[in-house]
Amino acid sequence: MQLCIGDRLWWIEIQRKPIKNLILRVAKEGDRLLVSAPQHVDQKTIEQFILSRQKWIEKTWIQIEHRRSQKYWHHVRSGQILFFGKKVPFRLEKGQERLLHENDGITLWTRVSDPEAVQQAFERQAVRLLQRRVEERRIELDARLAEYRQPAPTVSFRKMRSRWGSCIPSKGKVTLNTNLIYYPEVCLDYVLVHEFAHLIIPNHSRRFYQVVENWMPEYRQAQQWLREK
Questions:
Q1: In this structure, what DSSP letter does residue 162 have?
Q2: Are 89 and 104 in contact (CB under 8 A)?
Q3: Does the CA dihedral 189-190-195-198 come out positive or negative?
Q4: HSE (CB half, 13 Å, CA atoms) of 35?
Q5: What one-character DSSP code corresponds to residue 204?
Q6: What domains sit in the chain, N to C, each tagged with a CATH number?
Q7: What is the rounded distance in angstroms from the CA atom of residue 169 to the CA atom of residue 146?
Q8: How many CB atoms lie within 10 A of CB 21?
Q9: CA distance 193 to 187
Q10: What is the DSSP string of 27-87?
Q11: What residue spans of 91-184 are helical by DSSP H?
Q12: CA 85 to CA 94: how far, in whole Å?
């Protein structure tokens, strides 16, 4: 089940329990809402309950995002940064904004010094590195789509608030979260496979996950990693 709350589309997981009242939680990953509901409560009542907690949901999500942002960048003071799941040397230089990735680490040139602005500059420049990985991986996936007579989609990147990726099958458009730059490459591969599979099956049915597993047998490892981290 999905529900639009404010400017975000949330996945809702409902678990029926022998309880008297509805209970709402934001998953620790900040990517979905978890609802515990009595057996007799209908879906419309659950939706109204969730919408009535909009301010609390948004406040909680902001707190989760703040902790996540600190997690990505807390190594920077020691001259390191998380890059595809590994801590690598990080250097910050003054100059026109650009990024260089070499064997001995990452150097970011920027004219800003505020930590949040530096992070934003890094993520803007890191999109190029994400694109490179996607272009390598999608060669096989485009061929897979062709087997279903499905044209190759466009792939774009942006910082997403509650999802790792999204897909609009009718427009042939896939969007990936720029935060994937901080996670192991297998996580980027999984999200890419997941969204490409939606071009064929626009739901999360058993058949959908059969396609995902066929394309990426080890997908559960990456899925678990994203949920835990």
A1: S
A2: yes
A3: positive
A4: 26
A5: -
A6: 2-72 (no CATH), 76-228 (3.30.2010.10)
A7: 15
A8: 9
A9: 10
A10: -TTSSEEEEEEETT--HHHHHHHHHHTHHHHHHHHHHHHHHHHHHHHTTGGGTEEEETTEE
A11: 115-147
A12: 26
Directed axis angle between helix 185-198 and helix 219-228, to 10°? Answer: 110
Strand 105-110 to 32-38 pairing:
unpaired
Chain centroid to Cα 196, Å, comes to 14
Task: Give strand pairing partners of 30.
Answer: none
Tell me the pLDDT of the chain (229 aa) as tens digits: 888 887 677 889 999 999 999 999 988 767 789 999 999 999 999 999 999 999 998 888 777 766 665 665 655 656 888 888 888 899 989 999 999 998 889 999 999 888 778 888 998 998 999 999 999 999 999 999 999 999 999 999 988 866 899 999 999 999 999 989 988 999 999 999 999 999 999 988 999 999 999 999 999 989 888 876 5
Instruction: Give the per-residue pLDDT at 74.
Output: 56
**Helix or strand (DSSP H, E) at 212:** helix 206-215
Tokens standing for 152?
């190759």
- Classify 191 as helix, strand or coil: helix
Strands 154-158 and 173-177: parallel
219, with CB counted inside 10 A (0-12, 13-18, 19+), is buried
Say which amino acid occupies 24: L
